[in-house]
């Protein structure tokens, strides 16, 4: 809980500072929100992870915001559920100059995983996640972009009898729909 408050305080401070800088420089502020679909490996099988993201632009392509992702998977009569979210920092290269740009971001935060079913009691545990991402982004309209890319989900601290960090850390491919300006 203390770590969440620290992340939130830093995010608010950065947004406040960037808004003040944008007003001082005369630049317009902007941001985006969207949804991301990610095909990834989870417990040795392919799974679909879905999430939402949102951010505000700071200066010339740099942005700060947050995101949250989740998935469920059934395997061997067990139901696995995982969700996480956190602070997202990123940079969009060539975003205003061309119809195609490069987008890089890093999501860091906290999440949880649970295992239900079978003959043993239900299990749940929390973990930390770091998730770098790189995408090629296509401008479809002035308010809409589609990004295609991928990255790696690094999970630290998942410690259940049936699930550990290696079971849930994996590369992923993504398609992201962003709306805003």
SSE map:
Elements: H1 2-25, E1 31-42, E2 45-57, E3 62-75, E4 78-93, E5 100-117, E6 123-141, E7 144-156, H2 165-168, E8 170-180
Antiparallel strand pairs: 1-2, 1-8, 2-3, 3-4, 4-5, 5-6, 6-7, 7-8
What features would you describe in this structure?
- With 181 residues, the protein is an alpha+beta fold.
- It has one domain (30-180): Porin (Beta Barrel).
- 15% of the residues lie in helices and 64% in strands.
- It is built from two helices and eight strands.
- A hairpin with a 6-residue loop joins strand 4 (78-93) and strand 5 (100-117).
- The model has no long low-confidence stretch (mean pLDDT 85).
What can be said about this structure in brief?
By secondary structure, this protein is of the alpha+beta class. The protein is built from two helices and eight strands, in the order αβββββββαβ.
Give the C-alpha Rg.
18 Å
Strand content: over 45%
Secondary-structure element series: HEEEEEEEHE
Which word captures the global form?
A: elongated
Tally of separate helices: 2
Q: What's the domain count?
A: 1
Any low-confidence stretches, pLDDT <50, length ≥5? none
Q: Architecture, CATH level 2?
A: Beta Barrel
Main sheet makeup: 8 strands, antiparallel, barrel
What is the rounded distance between the termini?
Answer: 33 Å
Instruction: Strand order, main sheet: write it out.
Output: 1-2-3-4-5-6-7-8
Counting DSSP E segments of at least 2 residues, the number of strands comes to 8
CATH class: Mainly Beta
CATH overall fold name: Porin
């Amino acid at each position: 809980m203390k770590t969440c408050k620290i992340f939130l305080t830093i995010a608010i401070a950065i947004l406040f500072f960037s808004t003040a800088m944008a007003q001082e420089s005369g630049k317009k502020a902007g941001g985006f929100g969207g949804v991301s679909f990610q095909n990834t490996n989870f417990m040795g099988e392919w799974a679909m992870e879905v999430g939402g993201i949102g951010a505000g632009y700071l200066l010339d392509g740099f942005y700060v915001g947050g995101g949250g992702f989740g998935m469920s998977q059934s395997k061997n009569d067990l139901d696995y559920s995982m969700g996480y979210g956190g602070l997202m920092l990123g940079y969009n290269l060539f975003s205003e100059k061309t119809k195609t740009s490069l987008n890089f971001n890093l999501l860091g935060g906290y999440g949880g995983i649970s295992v239900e079913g079978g003959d043993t009691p239900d299990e749940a545990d929390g973990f930390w996640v770091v998730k770098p991402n790189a995408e090629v982004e296509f401008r479809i309209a002035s308010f809409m972009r589609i990004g295609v890319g991928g990255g790696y989900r690094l999970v630290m601290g998942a410690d259940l009898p049936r699930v550990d960090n290696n079971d849930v850390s994996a590369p992923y491919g993504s398609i992201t729909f962003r709306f805003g300006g």
